[in-house]
Amino acid sequence: MHKDDIEFGLSSERYAPETLAVHAAILPDPQTRAIAPNIVMSVNHSFLPNEGAFSAQGLEDISESPFLYAGWTNPTVRLLEERLAILEHAEDGLATASGMAAITAVFMSLLKAGDHLVISDVCYAAVYEFATQILPQFGIEVSTVDTSCINNVQKVLHESTKLVHVETPCNPLLRLTNIKELSELLKQRGILLSADSTFSTPVITRPLDLGADLVIHSLTKFINGHGDVLGGCVLGSKALISKLRSVAGVYFGASLSAQSAWLIMRGMETIYPRMKTLCESAYTIANWLENHPKVLRVLYPGLESHQQFSLAKRQMAFFGGIIAFQVEDIELIEQRFAHESKMFYYAYSIGHQRSLAVVLKTDDLDKSTYRFSPEQKANFCRDAGKGVVRLSIGLESPVDLIRDLSHLLR
Ligand SMILES: Cc1ncc(COP(=O)(O)O)c(C=O)c1O
């Protein structure tokens, strides 16, 4: 294979995604022939007077800018963006300091006072809180709906709706949104669709191929995969990403550091084998849990009992590494996971090489985040009951994980 064949944006048709995850956009350093990418730590890059951002011609498109200042773009971060764009079949990408920075960049760049945003009514708590508590302070109207049913979205759209933001599968209930169907509806009305695909990664679903305008990841999770760095990204058309780069990077200062970008790139190279392994384990464990007498209900897109199993089979290449389940005595199971588990670290995040678990109680989520209406609470409880144990399956043997779960559920 000639390294020159694997160039940004050209190679996706000729090479398998597993190959691209390892090789894409990487060439040995011309001077030292080092194979691992260099980390460029310089904040500044020297330039000539007619090249700078404030030259007479200005910068029409900040993504095309030469390297000037690390807050706007940096060679190591740019390489990560190019490699992420290849994996997600995007024209361009913007890496940010966290997943939240990516999401807030999308909202704050694409919406203005008077606009209307629709989001999944169950999604990562900070996204929900930002959308429902902070955006209205800027005159942005926000509707929260169960996007697993497209009719719910259709009902709230109006002339001012500019953006629909979904998480699929959503955190923590693993409900799915049909990206293809929703994007067709929104395109007719000129409304943008952004999809947070953190739970899926490009190994499982490529939202842009299905019609979404933007795909978002918390790189902190599966893409880095080792629980040792924060990062986020937004991927989409050159025009949209250029708009986001000026706001997120230049104005909000939400830029990713070069060291973090390098670590994420290293994790990302093994995304395919990692995801395949942990998805297979999660599938085995979800089936085991479903047959356990102490388990009331398992939420996992790969189970026939999942309400959207047929969509999961169409939209997901694997069913993911996150499982949520209900038990009768949620307080007891919380104590056991926190104090007795030998395999699951009791922690909030997801997507590490190590398995993690957390108990999310419905009343606590309601008080702290969702502030449900009675109908919304009933809809949430339909899947979550009094609360769920959320497992993020890691790379341990499923045999060891099941032995641990068996002890905790005794
Ligand atoms: C689905 C989803 N999106 C976004 C985020 C936010 O990412 P970060 O923690 O990198 O800001 C999270 C965090 O858990 C998440 O679960």
Automatic annotation (TrEMBL):
Cofactor entry: pyridoxal 5'-phosphate
Any one biological process term the GO annotation gives: transsulfuration
Cellular component, GO, one term: cytoplasm
InterPro entries associated with the record: Cys/Met-Metab_PyrdxlP-dep_enz, Cys_met_metab_PP, PyrdxlP-dep_Trfase, PyrdxlP-dep_Trfase_major, PyrdxlP-dep_Trfase_small
Annotated positions of the N6-(pyridoxal phosphate)lysine modification: K221
GO MF term set: carbon-sulfur lyase activity; pyridoxal phosphate binding; transferase activity
Superkingdom as given in the UniProt entry: Bacteria
Family matches, as Gene3D superfamilies: Aspartate Aminotransferase, domain 1, Type I PLP-dependent aspartate aminotransferase-like (Major domain)
Cross-referenced Pfam families: Cys_Met_Meta_PP
Protein keywords: Pyridoxal phosphate, Transferase
Family per similarity comment: Belongs to the trans-sulfuration enzymes family.
Designated name of the protein: PLP-dependent transferase
